[in-house]
């Protein structure tokens, strides 16, 4: 089983954390990446062939070829159902899936846009993106409440949310200290060996490129 990813790919990191949680042995090949470029990823023939979006992650498992982090994570769920990354009940699974989709498709693109705005500054758009990040933190704090995890049990939604806030912090919008429950949740998530491994490798890549790590993760 092989995954093509990037050393600083949010969506690729989701897949790598899920694979470790599931105990799945995978080979990982990273595409070239330049943090200082507005188009940071190089091209790769296999990625371009399998994914018409020309994006990582891409999974090859024998004759099966998949792309999209959520599709790959669902494949992992079917492969190893004994280590679930979705909650136990139907409604909680639906809530977790909806939350993960919101992070992937609504919040994280705004977070990532902050990176692009370094090359094309736009004060109004920057303010809009930062307001979205603030709303993201507020929404997660409300969703979390007094639970240990965002929805019932540790899930792909927690993985996506942790990575999104990590990228937001890298791009100058760290989680405010006022969100007490969320800051405690972050400590629980980053203590998991899967998260520590994958995110530690990402932070090592930042350090090698001489970019500062978020203070909480330094």
Structure report:
The chain is built from eight helices and four strands. The protein is an alpha+beta fold and 218 residues long. The protein folds into two domains: 2-79, Glutaredoxin (3-Layer(aba) Sandwich), CATH 3.40.30; 90-192, Glutathione S-transferase Yfyf (Class Pi), Chain A, domain 2 (Up-down Bundle), CATH 1.20.1050.10. Strands 2-1-3-4 form a four-stranded mixed sheet, with helices on one face. α4 packs antiparallel against α5 (123-144) and α4 (90-116) runs parallel beside α6. It is globular.
Write the layout of secondary structure elements.
Elements: E1 2-5, H1 10-22, E2 27-30, H2 45-50, E3 58-61, E4 64-67, H3 69-79, H4 90-116, H5 123-144, H6 156-170, H7 180-190, H8 193-208
Parallel strand pairs: 1-2
Antiparallel strand pairs: 1-3, 3-4
């Amino acid at each position: 089983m092989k995954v093509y990813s990037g050393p600083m790919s949010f969506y690729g990191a989701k897949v790598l954390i899920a694979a470790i949680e599931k105990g799945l042995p995978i080979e990982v090949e990273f595409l070239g990446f330049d943090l200082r470029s507005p188009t940071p990823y190089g091209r790769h023939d296999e990625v371009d062939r399998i994914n018409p979006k020309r994006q990582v992650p891409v999974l090859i498992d024998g004759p099966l070829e998949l792309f999209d982090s959520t599709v790959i994570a669902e494949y992992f769920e079917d492969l190893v159902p004994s280590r679930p990354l979705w909650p136990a009940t139907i409604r909680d699974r639906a809530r977790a899936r909806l939350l993960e989709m919101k992070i992937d498709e609504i919040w994280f693109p705004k977070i990532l846009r902050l990176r692009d705005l370094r090359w094309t500054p736009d004060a109004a758009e920057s303010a809009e993106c930062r307001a979205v990040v603030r709303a993201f933190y507020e929404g997660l704090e409300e969703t979390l409440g007094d639970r240990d995890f965002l929805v019932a049990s540790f899930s792909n939604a927690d993985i996506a949310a942790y990575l999104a806030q990590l990228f937001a912090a890298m791009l100058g919008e760290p989680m405010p200290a006022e969100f007490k429950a969320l800051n405690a949740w972050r400590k629980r998530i980053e203590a998991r060996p899967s998260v520590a491994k994958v995110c530690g490798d990402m932070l090592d890549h930042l350090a090698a490129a001489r970019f500062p790590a978020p203070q909480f993760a330094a």
